[in-house]
Prior knowledge:
The complex is a heterodimer.
Chain A: H1 4-33, H2 39-51, H3 54-64, H4 72-79, H5 87-97, H6 99-113, H7 116-123, H8 128-139, H9 141-156, H10 160-166, H11 176-185, H12 189-213
Helix pairs in contact in A: 1-5, 1-6, 1-9, 1-11, 2-6, 3-10, 5-10, 6-9, 7-8, 9-12, 11-12
Chain B: H1 2-7, H2 15-34, E1 38-43, H3 47-59, E2 65-70, H4 72-80, E3 87-89, H5 94-101, E4 111-116, E5 118-122, E6 144-147, H6 153-164, H7 168-171, E7 175-178, H8 181-189, E8 195-199, E9 213-215, E10 224-230, H9 237-248, H10 250-258, E11 262-263
Parallel strand pairs in B: 1-2, 1-3, 6-7, 6-8
Antiparallel strand pairs in B: 3-10, 4-10, 4-11, 5-8, 5-9
Helix pairs in contact in B: 3-10
Amino acid sequence: MNLTPVWISLQLAAVTVVVLLVLGTPLAWWLATGRSRWRVAVDAVVALPLVLPPTVLGFYMLILLAPQGPVGGPWLAVTGQTLTFSFTGLVITSVLYSLPFVVQPLRDAFRGIGPRPLETAAMLGAGRLDAFVTVACPLAGRGFVTAIVLGFAHTLGEFGAILMVGGSLPGETRTVAIAIYENVETLDYAAAHALSAGLLVFSFVALLIIYTLNGRRRTGVGL
Amino acid sequence: MSDQAALAPGAGRGSALLKWLLAGLLLGLVAPAWAAPLKVAVASNFLAPLEALADVYHRQGGPALQISAGATGQLYAQITQGAPYDVFLAADQARPQRLVAEGAALADSRMTYARGRLVLWARPGVELPVNGLAGLQRSSVTRLAIANPALAPYGRAAREALQASGQWSVLSERIVQGQNVGQALQYLATGNVSHALVAASYTRLDEGPAGDHQPVEAQLYAPIRQDAVILSGTASADQARAFLAFLRGPAAADVLASFGYRPAGGSR
Lengths: 223, 268
């Protein structure tokens, strides 16, 4: 059986989670502690992928990332590469698709810390960034684990949006979910079973990790 | 029903009228079962023509069609799991053949109901080759969309045509595959590819993508035959046979031609 799609999916999930941690951590912090009147609106935007069908996201990405599109056009001009049908395009799509699964657990973890530890750190002379890195982040550790595992697992299982943006290029954009779909369509049920069972077991183990870690208190996942 | 029965004892002089009402009600309950809609599973690429055909058929006095559209492979999987369809209009010949072999479809019912054709479509401002597919210049193709040859008959035909014209190896790195021919068209409509090899039926779409198209030379690919079968589990075999006979008839041929298909019989 061809395991390349599994490898593509693992790479995609890993890159997506890293990008989401870099972009999502400050965003989650702002959502948890900010006082801007835009906060509620941004919260709603972050939650959008939870309620929208993936095909909506896929459709708009197909237009945004197109060679003439508002994102794909400039990208093509600068890099000479098109975004649709590329691994980079899949990463951009996945970052949006998995955004709430990373940002929401982080936001709730930061919120759960409360103002006191940071006030204490400030009184002891820690700067804002110092307090964030040395006090807030360690205290939100379980939120980070939840965010990483959920973001990774959710990206791994992505189907609808990838189906539309990817173009099913072997070795580049044919992910494990697409490969399963194609195996079912071509009646290769043995391969479909093997890949599906693998995803099923992985997802179960991932959730088991989260629930074990958060066993003593309710998880902060907004699902 | 229970409401009607509860009314009956207290009806008195109106009981004759009530009997008629009850009889009418019973008839009303029985009649739909007698004229039950024919449940048709259809490959998505043939959904629009089938809806048009259903209209014509109904106007000719045939039963209404209850249509379920999906990918041929997905419908095949549903049918093997006992999905209660009467007729299956596939996008290929393989799945109906397989259903017959497995005893899930009636062997003598299998027929080719339509033969599809390929067109080469180019985005606005992109040129079409003047001397057929072989004349397609590599430099003018940024991306060429086809349906996945492993999944879709139009994808297989597209690959055949590209191979026969010597373009497959030349363009291989610029070919992207949609899950079906509809997705290949979508890539063209959203501006993500310069060219697409898709079903001729799309040229009849009112809201089709912009740009020009031309038929692909018929000798470059084996005809795209779409087969129909009646499923063994049907309770309306006679009605199903009548509908397949209608599909072979002249009224259906007109509808098929208007959607860019060649009818089942006749030469190409």
